[in-house]
């Protein structure tokens, strides 16, 4: 139960020494559990000549190899006879989930009730850190399908004592907001932007609804777009990062990074290019390890799992909110990164350039970008398409200058190529519904690399 702004004050404010001791105890138990219950890890330890008993503290995990989504797919039917990651007896499995990721082949996930309770605990801590409590009623727009998020958020709500409206998507009728007067919505940023536009088009006034905070998950969000969304709803917007693999990190009211629930999931940051773990403050791939409290069961645990999302460990110092658990930058998808002249460019970099306040007078915020080969060898073209509220009223020159200027300001390496004529940036304008992504199904692709060499 929430007390004094914390869901579990003992754990959330534990000092670093005690927290590390608890983490190391759980590392030992989890590794032993993996060796005893997971066919995959039993073979993995043997294959890499690792004695599980030698893994004593979390630093020892840095010496172990990594696994990735591909590894899970290669150790489940039809590739293997059994689901080799399953680490509890069938009778102990409470639910079977799937996550498709970017490759489209679903990964099977097996969860015990202990796993569900831990997932819900992570969401409950995150919600309480964002000021949620018994007075709140939250519309859950995350899907109640094979992903674990919406269901575990619902259990978290019950544990906090707050109400839920389990819509499962963001396209609900506005009467949900005006009649039941929920205080918060959890959903993806772009869907919440679309919802705000719809409410305005329907003439709904801020006083007709009671939303006082939004929680964004599902995809990373540029700081600029968060600020714009917060302005549209006139309330704070909190980032969360959750996945079926078990990461549930959330931003607290201090909005200074996302807290990692360190007693339940261990996070390291890895640079795949130089093949090593990187120190705090450097960007790399988030690599997670499930941590089991001693005595608990897990249907599918992961050691050194490469999430293929990039992040930075921002701080291990105590946060202004009082929590001691480390904070990270909102992770970005590595799959949404293109490399141009040795510079990495993420979808979020384009988004930051689009969401300049001056542009938003004309734009909806919807955008997509493409990278092409230029006409001459060594030339690269970046095309950024933006959706206008009204194509004829849009000040195209001003928007183009803003988008290109801001993009290059953030990417000095690319600015050099731009000024030398190797990189061309085209900004194109479409009316509502005119983007390619509005005609494609599934997760919108906002950065597409169409170079022949890519
Ligand atoms: Zn905090």
General shape: globular
Q: Name the ligand types.
A: zinc ion
Work out the oligomeric state of the chains in this entry: single chain
Low-confidence stretches: none
Structural class: alpha/beta
Number of helices: 12
Sheet of most strands: 14 strands, mixed
Helix content: 25-40%
Text of the CATH class of the largest domain: Alpha Beta
Instruction: Provide mean pLDDT, rounded.
Output: 93
**How many β-strands, per DSSP?**
22
Overview of the molecule:
The protein has 454 residues and is α/β, with parallel strands linked by helices. The chain has 3 domains: 9-116 and 243-330, ANL, N-terminal domain (Rossmann fold), CATH 3.40.50.12780; 131-235, 3-Layer(aba) Sandwich (Rossmann fold); 336-449, GMP Synthetase, Chain A, domain 3 (2-Layer Sandwich). 29% of the residues lie in helices and 25% in strands. It has helices at 9-12, 16-37, 39-47, 69-74, 113-129, 149-160, 175-179, 189-201, 223-233, 347-354, 396-410, 412-419; strands at residues 67-68, 93-99, 107-112, 137-140, 163-165, 184-187, 213-216, 237-242, 248-251, 258-259, 265-271, 276-277, 283-290, 305-315, 327-328, 332-333, 337-340, 343-346, 363-373, 380-388, 423-430, 447-449. The strands form 4 sheets. Strands 1, 4, 5, 6, 7, 8, 9, 10, 11, 12, 13, 14, 15 and 16 form a 14-stranded mixed beta sheet that branches. A 4-stranded mixed beta sheet has the order 21-20-19-22. Strand 2 and strand 3 form a beta hairpin. Helix 8 (189-201) packs parallel to helix 9 (223-233), helix 10 (347-354) crosses helix 11 (396-410) and helix 11 packs across helix 12 (412-419). The longest helix has 22 residues, at 16-37. The chain is globular, with a radius of gyration of 23 Å. The model has no long low-confidence stretch (mean pLDDT 93). Residues 252, 254, 259, 319, 321, 323 line the site of zinc ion (ZN).
